[in-house]
């Protein structure tokens, strides 16, 4: 058996035999979903799309900001 397959089977068997761990992983995944999807949509709107209509304008703005901060 290859080394990679042994590693995959090790983790697969470990997760399959979990009882409390499955619930904890579900909670972790729900929290990650909330943090990265929901909060991003609510608190981090797409600034460049809301201010500029074309890709060229967005690129020019980013370029100006990078040059001015240097």
Helices and strands, with pairings:
Layout: H1 3-16, H2 20-43, H3 47-51, H4 55-69
- The portion of residues forming beta strands comes to under 5%
Please, how many domains? Answer: 1
Broad structural category = mainly alpha
Bulk shape:
elongated
C-alpha-based Rg, rounded: 22 Å
Q: Specify the helix fraction band.
A: over 70%
* SSE string: HHHH
Extract low-pLDDT stretches.
Answer: none
What is the subunit arrangement here? single chain
The tally of beta strands, per DSSP, is 0
Q: Overall pLDDT, averaged?
A: 87
Distance between the termini: 54 Å
Number of H/I helices:
4
Biggest sheet statistics: none
Describe, in plain words, how this protein is organized in 3D.
With 70 residues, the protein is mainly α. The chain has one domain. Helix content is 83%, strand content 0%. It has four helices and no strands. It has helices at residues 3-16, 20-43, 47-51, 55-69. The longest helix has 24 residues, at 20-43. It is elongated, with a radius of gyration of 22 Å. The model has no long low-confidence stretch (mean pLDDT 87).
């Amino acid at each position: 058996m290859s080394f990679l397959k042994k590693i995959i089977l090790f983790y697969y068997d470990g997760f399959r035999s979990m009882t409390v761990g499955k619930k904890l992983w579900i909670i972790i995944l729900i929290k990650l979903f909330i943090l990265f999807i929901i909060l991003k949509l609510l608190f981090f709107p797409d600034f460049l799309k809301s201010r500029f209509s074309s890709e060229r304008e967005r690129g020019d703005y980013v370029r100006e900001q990078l040059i001015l901060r240097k």
